[in-house]
Design goal:
Blueprint lengths: L2 H17 L2 H10 L7 H20 L3 H27 L1
């Protein structure tokens, strides 16, 4: 495969794995509950995505870097919502 085809797979994977967290974030914000989201799993996932960001930066991979920055942000909002709504109710 040439470089263009490989980059296509990278961008496509980045879009799918990033957008996959939007329904959870929307549900959390609508219901004002995140009881069904595991706190430990969420923290571990955010840490793992943080390492992907470092990795993507170090190898200069734009698809890895941008997808994981967005994924990190979405999941950080889910984590903040989980903590906020747990204290509020």
């Amino acid at each position: 495969m040439n470089s263009f085809n490989i980059e296509f797979f990278g961008y496509f994977a980045a879009i799918l794995t990033t957008v996959a967290f939007l329904p959870q974030l929307i549900k959390t914000l609508k219901t004002k509950k995140a009881d069904d989201v595991s706190l430990v799993t969420l923290i571990m996932f955010i840490l793992g995505v943080g390492f992907w960001i470092v990795y993507g930066y170090e190898i200069s991979s734009f698809p890895i870097l941008i997808a994981n920055v967005i994924t990190f942000t979405l999941n950080l909002f889910i984590l903040i919502s989980k903590i906020y709504y747990a204290r509020k109710y």
